[in-house]
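If you are new to this repository, start here. Below is one unmodified record pulled from the training split, so you can see the exact layout before writing a loader.
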Amino acid sequence: MVQWSFMTRLRATFDGKVLVPMEPVELRAGSLYQIDVREDDTGSRPQALLRLLQSLPKLPPEDIDEMEAGIKRAELPSHFEDPFGNGGEG
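And here is the target side for that same chain:
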């Protein structure tokens, strides 16, 4: 059974060949480390949202036209009736 003496968390960028830590780390040179990699989207929420939107299926123009026509048909003139019966209308 392997027992780890410490755990450290670091953020790194990938240059196409190696992971490059974004801040100094205190690790022993030549030692073997186990690394679990996941993409860090903290601080980049707009980019994560953009990736999500780009992953959605593309709608054909005729579907978009149909949706906009449905929205247009559902538009109602604004009308306000005073719920307290004071005769006010807006």
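Two things worth knowing about this chain: The mean pLDDT is 79. The beta strands are 12-14, 19-21.
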